[in-house]
Amino acid sequence: MRTPIVQISLFLVLLGTTAARAHAFLDHANPLVGSTVAAAPQEVSLSFSQNLEASFSGVEVSDSAGARVDQGKAQISGGVMRVGLKSLSPGTYRVHWHVLAADTHKSEGSFVFHVGKP
Amino acid sequence: MIRLLRCLRAFAPGLLLLVLSNSNVFAHCFVGARFFPATLLIDDPCVADEMSIPTVDWFKTGTTPAGSEWDVSAEFDKRITEDLGFGISDVWSQIRTPGGPTMVGFGDLETTLQYQLLKDSSHETAMLLGLIVDWGGTGATNAGIGTPYSLLTPTYYFGQGLGQLPDSVGWARPLAITGQVGYQIPTTSYIVSQSVFVPQVLVYGASLQYSLPYLKSEVQDFQFPDFINHLIPLVEAQLFTPVANNFGNPATTTGTINPGVIYVGSYFQIGLEAMIPVNRTSGTGAGVLGQFHLYLDDMFPKTLGQPLIGGAATSSSKPL
Questions:
Q1: N or C: which end of chain A has fewer CB within 10 A?
Q2: How far apart are CA B273 and CA B319, in angstroms?
Q3: Closest in A34, A103, A111 to B301, CB measured
Q4: Residue B268's beta-bridge partner residues?
């Protein structure tokens, strides 16, 4: 009985220690997903659960009319992607991201944040 | 289990081919921002490289007096191409009936061939066609667990996320519905030795899911503890209704409704559900169903997690 338990334990440890090779999930965003911020942010920062392939990852930020308000190409380091923003007026903004994890799995998503009084 | 391992060994030459391929895929059931987990009772609407080992359930049977049944099953699913998949599974069962014999053995070997009809990322829609075959005579027929005849079940599967709902009802956007409808056709219509007709059966089911990972990354980050952000509460149901060739048998719909929860990790998921029988024929009281499920495409992205043939090249991706 002990041998299978040891094998299962080693297997689970393996699952936990190879965490650099799966789909990239959005772990944290700044501004927070769905949040309202009083002051206009100068950038959007997205932290993912995996390292990203910079050539195939990107982010767009647009206002409620669909006009781009980001400053272009995102900066990517490890699992963090940042993009600068133009001067934002109060309103609702949508962030659409698209990433390729280091193991070639794709992920995508979008969310909004609001600028103005909560 | 031994039979399953033998089948896996038979796949070995094909598995070697996997090493040669290299593709860029969403893999298991990602459809845009939506992730459909592998549900425990019905199948998810995607072909995938995955393995459920084990799935375990326990419940009291609908007989009088009620007996108890344990089932332990394993399933292995592999993509042949990006849109075509193959699955193989088997179940070991033990059925104890008070005052009666204990029936023990493997059920019939089950294979599934599936084709991905649609994955629409922008609408979070997935559709799948499949043919499930339960191979008669491969299980413990003498123990009353397997059958001497095969069952063919062409099945349609679907999944629909509700992420397109407006932000005014943002709380509902993490909801998703999946379902399947199949028509089970036995290869024998009448068992002479038992003088019973073998009915054709409509097999249908659905799940309603609420994805907390989707809530966090697409709607609103409430900064819940990390464990909570990995949960998908859901309710599943699967029903069986005899619809033809059912002479002399009760025309009763059977099945269970299963409330539960799935924890989604990077490489695996763990699901736990209660099994509520829909009527006395389906069971006595609540049972329990649990599953440990592995995402092979994430665990082995460059080998076992690749389709056997083809796959999109990395260079086909369009950066934003």
A1: N
A2: 40
A3: A103
A4: B294
